[in-house]
Amino acid sequence: MAARPSRPRLLLRHATLVAVSFVMLLPFYWVMKTAVTNENIYAYPPGIVPRDPHLFNFVDVWYLIPFPRYLLNSIVVSAIAVAGNVVLNAMAGYALTRQFPGRRAVLALFLSCMLIPFQATIIPAYLITAKMGLLNTYFGLAFPMLSTIICIFVFKAAFEAVPRSLIDAARLDGLSEWRIILRVLLPLSKPAIATNVILSFIWSWNNFLWPLLITRDPTMQTLPLGLARFLSYMEDTTGALYAFAVLVLAPSVLVFLMAQKEFIRGLTSGATKG
Amino acid sequence: MSLRQVRKTYDAQEIVHGVDLEVADQEFVVLVGPSGCGKSTLLRMIAGLEEISGGEIAIGERTVNEVDPKDRDVAMVFQDYALYPHLTVFQNIAFSLQYRNVGKAEIARRVAEVAAILDIEPLLERKPRQLSGGQRQRVAMGRAIVREPKVFLFDEPLSNLDAKLRVQMRTEIKKLRERVRTTAIYVTHDQVEAMTLADRIVLMHNGQVEQIGTPEDVYDEPATLFVAGFVGTSAMNLIQGRIEGGAVIFGDGARLVLPPSRYDAHAGKAVTIGLRPEHLHWAKDGDPNPLVGVARVVEPLGSDTLVVFDVAGCELQARLPPRVVRHAGEAVRVAVAPESIHLFDPATERRL
Ligand SMILES: Nc1ncnc2c1ncn2[C@@H]1O[C@H](COP(=O)(O)OP(=O)(O)O)[C@@H](O)[C@H]1O
Ligand SMILES: [Mg+2]
Questions:
Q1: What is the distance between the alpha carbons of residues A60 and B200, in angstroms, rounded to a whole number?
Q2: What is the DSSP letter of A181?
Q3: Mean pLDDT on A73-81
Q4: Closest residue CA from atom 8 of ligand 1
Q5: Residue B137 with chain A: CB contacts under 8 Å
Q6: Which band of pLDDT confidence, cut at 50, 70 and 90, is reported for residue A262?
Q7: Which of chain B's termini has less CB crowding within 10 Å, N or C?
Q8: What are the boundaries of each domain within chain A?
């Protein structure tokens, strides 16, 4: 632990943190404020305190469009994606910590795949999904997001940080490879799990292009698509639009808050010992 | 248990060169050697954690080369203890039993029994990070004992402890052996640990066995120069000399009489002479082989004093009673019994 900084430096540090937080939080506050009023965001002079706050915008969003349906779709798809990421990435990550012929080739393949943007592979992905008869299904919506290479590497790094002797001990204790992952490695890799949960949830939750491509049936659409549709047929959208944005954001924030402690440890692990 | 011509190769480089070893039932064998000599590798091959590149390992009557680690019925204590950090002490000890179809009540009974033997009952609900080094060490032992395996394997279990605790735990292991009589293979780089614990010592050097024998054997009759230098609290004096007329000559003319007719076949041969510092005793009149010299360095240790002195142009070290020599520059008069002189062939480095 470093020595406690002197008082003026501490003040300066806190002042900086407050200023940065302010810049980060202001747009968020603005969205919230607009959502509970009908003020035009371009209104001049801008007011900080909302005038006559009300919740009618939320009510509108809930009833004017099939919001609950979109919400359900988004939750189901994201849950499948999160489960897929945690399970598949942990398995792949463990495999990559072991020695096997062709390991380097696999690593090189994974790294090079990360260089290809999703947009470039979206047509073949669509064709494959269509061939499998998964268009307009929850599984099809989650399909390309079931595993993420970056998150595989997050697990690989976490597993490599577990002392080799623990795995040896587990092997002598009679655990199969599957049980070593489940009973020894995963309990010691909570930050990596949290990182996987948060990242895959956010990617899946915010995905727009893929659901747009593979859903014909409006009842299978997810929230981002709903938002786009909503935009196209609402007149004066300001307040309701922002209410919608708040409702879309809320679950992500919730997931993040639940997992944030482990998540931050995951991002900074390796920075310090112990 | 037996090893026959066991070898290990990494990337075309041989690390362990054909080790042969027979371990009797309930025997405590210590593998000792400098670090990097392949002790851990050999132990891990016995455990099944490392593939065997050549040769055969048998436990009991069964060849286990292709047997999974979990089915070899061996338990291992690791240098870093390898306790599962997310489990309590109880769960750590019980862990392996859960995967071996042992009932809940039976697990509780066996863990309690082991905890009593090791005196760790109050710690059962703690997590490993809440334990001191010595306590973790005990838990690691408990985890091995609870399995009641055919063979215990220890890989430098005491090397992470501080000196005082190490001595204490060494005694504990020795006591434990009286209660838990199981075949054990114990790896260490510390020759004192090896001498105190072993029924039999296996001395390894560069992936090869230099000597196998009881602690007395390897101390009294080191088979090679390496063993001579490795065993013993203070290193053996090694000096070049020549056999001539029932004696060895070294330096500028010093003479040590050898036991009668024992080395007659080697007359005239150049040899390496080995003298243990503790066998150079303060000379009384009439002692054979007196050596007179001048003290260079005097290191009092309390119970005795290490004296480095010059004799006949060679530097020797002697372990003498306290206060016979106090300062550098004083005269030193020591003698050595003919039976305590070790002779080695400088070319083959083997004992004559
Ligand atoms: N996985 C490995 N790959 C290549 N060389 C290894 C490996 N493990 C150990 N070695 C080498 O084998 C030799 C013996 O290692 P080890 O058995 O750990 O020695 P010890 O336990 O006696 O200190 C060392 O020189 C080490 O560098
Ligand atoms: Mg070792």
A1: 86
A2: I
A3: 96
A4: B41
A5: none
A6: confident
A7: C
A8: 51-268
Protein residue with least CA distance to atom 14, ligand 1: B38
Name the residue facing B49 among A163, A168, A175 (closest C-beta): A168
Distance from the A254 Cα atom to the nearest Cα atom in chain B, whole angstroms: 27
Which of B95, B150, B152, B155 best tests the A interface by mutation, with the highest count of A CBs <10 A? B95
Q: At what angle do helices A56-64 and A67-97 cross, to 10 degrees?
A: 80
Do the Cβ atoms of A173 and B70 come within 8 Å?
yes
Read off the tokens for A207. Answer: 């995905």
CA Rg value for chain A: 23
Secondary structure of residue B343 in the 3-state scheme: strand
Tell me, rounded to whole angstroms, the distance of Cα B81 from its chain centroid: 20
Q: Which of B20, B13, B32 is nearest to B204 (CA)?
A: B32
Q: What is the pLDDT at residue A132?
A: 94
Distance B156 CA to ligand 2 centre (A): 7
Q: How far apart are CA A111 and CA A149, in angstroms?
A: 8
d(CA B169, CA B156): 12
Give the nearest chain B residue to A164 (CA atoms).
B82
Task: Identify whether the C-beta of residue B266 lies closer than 8 Å to the C-beta of residue B352.
Answer: yes
Q: Name the percent of chain B lying above pLDDT 90.
A: 80
Query: Model confidence over A132-159: pLDDT tens digits?
Result: 999 999 999 999 999 999 999 999 999 9
Q: Which two tokens stand for residue B76?
A: 């291992």
Q: How far is the CA of B12 from the centre of ligand 1 (A)?
A: 13
Q: Which CATH architecture has domain A51-268?
A: Orthogonal Bundle (1.10)
